[in-house]
Every structure is written in structure tokens, then in C-alpha cells.
Amino acid sequence: MRASRHHCSSFPSKGYRGKLKPLGRIAGQMASMIFALLKTNQELLAKVPFGQDPPVPMLYDPEVHRLHRAGHYHSLKPGTQPRRIIQLPKQP
């Protein structure tokens, strides 16, 4: 990520201002993804009867990530319907 001119400090030795915001956003996205995967695996394990082998855990899949970025998003929560976009009429 390139810093814009207003993120540069006035003194060359101090580095860039605001460099922790992108790092915080990325760390938050990673934590959300880890939580979603763990939660999905926990819900799957809760449905497995006692004595039966558990299913293979859900892992991060780069192909799913690529499809999501291309617009083919589906929620990890079972039974959720995709949201429809409603265009409101223009007000005079």
C-alpha cells in the first residue's frame, strides 16, 4: 500500500503517519475469518453423533476467496438467503 502525500511526515526520519490503520484492518479481517472458520467447524462437530468420525474441518480456500472477489459470494451461515438490491424511486 502506498502512502499518500498527507500521510508522509515532515521529517524524513519519522516515517509515515497512519501506517497502523491498514495493519489493523487486515488483522481484523484475519481474526474475523479465523473466527468464522472455527465457528463453522464447531457447529458441524455439534451435529455429529457420538462415536461417529467427525467430518473434515473447513479450511481457508484461495479458490473460494477468488470467487467471492469476483462477485459469487455466499455466506458461511447455513440457510441465509442472498440479499436483494432494491432501487428506490427518485424523489422530486
Task: Based on the model shown, name its key terms.
92 residues, mainly alpha, 2 helices, 39% helix, flat
Query: What shape does the CA trace take?
Result: flat
Content of β-strand: under 5%
Distance between the ends: 42 Å
Summarize the biggest pleated sheet: none
Q: Which parts are unreliable, with pLDDT below 50 for 5 consecutive residues or more? A: none
| Rounded mean pLDDT score | 79
Describe this structure in words.
- This protein has 92 residues and is an all-alpha fold.
- The chain is 39% helix and 0% strand.
- It contains two helices and no strands.
- The protein has helices at residues 20-47, 62-69.
- The model has no long low-confidence stretch (mean pLDDT 79).
In short:
The protein is mainly α and 92 residues long.
Element layout with pairings:
Blueprint: H1 20-47, H2 62-69
